[in-house]
């Protein structure tokens, strides 16, 4: 995807709609690299409860995002902006009334509330998965919507990025990328899937209109007055954060797997949607844009696992790496199910396990075992993608967890037993959204890592034991109980 015009000197405003923060930053349009100092961040604190809720206040979220743009303007960063792009968390949903006002907070991917759908006896979930790239799981709208309809008199539904886009432009539309994350899209046609809508009990006119990748809007008059430098600037449809992160890391074709480690982790491959390989049951598939899909596996424990363990063990900033522990050498095996597993597995949160603890083990041993366990989980997905695409994929690494831990970078490389390139840019989602909108192919630009043969050999010897203990942990996990009330 080479550039087709000269963008030197122009800039891109990227809005990154995360679960833990909303960010606005400015990038150079020629290569999607960040402008130094042009970043504003609003911290988000989702609300969790014992009923399974995991929600975000919509009004506070949007107002916090708008304040980020105010901050950028005050610091003189909203000049020479040629495009506005968005990267957003997938899977969120809000129930709306007849006037389009929110009846619920933002329901995030972590929310476990749901109801069992009423299914036709002929329903074939494997065919559904092959067509939509998702499972009939509470993560997705076909299960979310019937539950919401049992709770509130919702007339229509939208996700967080759809409502942010509507607030900015006055148009409630969505992209094929965001729509694919609802689990309600026919991936081949790029339209809402008839069976998914039937399971949800709604028609397509109750969901945001899907616009093509080339669609653009502009800021409404009030926001054009608030930020004069953005008046008339095209606003591009949002890209799902997983797809954006892949492209932003440098994994934008079927030769390369991108491993991103943030709060959670994922391994994914971007590829053409036409003639896409048959989707294995264990993997999901969403859309990047009109022509490309992204296939991968996600993991609920990554940076959150590291943050939890360093807090529990009361490790100060000088002891947040397992210094002195050789990769693959720990006799302690950690199965990182503290936050459960993603579909199609149904292991609930609270299922993390340590095997082989002794009185000789230290905080560094526990930390090393946890990072090793997360690495082995990601490796499972990478090897499935190798098989799917018929080659040993190149690997690029990106995200805050990658950036924060040299030990973890080495551990991942040894676990994969192949070289890897680290993305030099931290804001891979924003970078990827700009690349999708403008047709760029950013290079990782960071250090090249070669696995240590000794470390790779130790991890290879560890893998069979990990696999056996993982199976035991899955079998011993408590029964998943899904609360149906609010």
TrEMBL record:
- Signal peptide positions (record): none
Does Transferase show up as a keyword for this record?
yes
Q: Which Pfam families match?
A: FGGY_C, FGGY_N
Report domain Carbohydrate kinase FGGY N-terminal positions: 12-248
Q: Tell me the keywords, alphabetical order.
A: Kinase, Transferase
Q: Which residues form the Carbohydrate kinase FGGY C-terminal domain?
A: 257-437
**GO BP term (any one):** carbohydrate metabolic process
One molecular function GO term is: kinase activity
Which family, according to the similarity comment?
Belongs to the FGGY kinase family.
Entry-linked PANTHER family: GLUCONOKINASE, SUGAR KINASE
What's the protein here called? Carbohydrate kinase FGGY
Q: Which organism is it from?
A: Kribbella flavida (strain DSM 17836 / JCM 10339 / NBRC 14399)
Q: What is the lineage of its organism?
A: Bacteria, Bacillati, Actinomycetota, Actinomycetes, Propionibacteriales
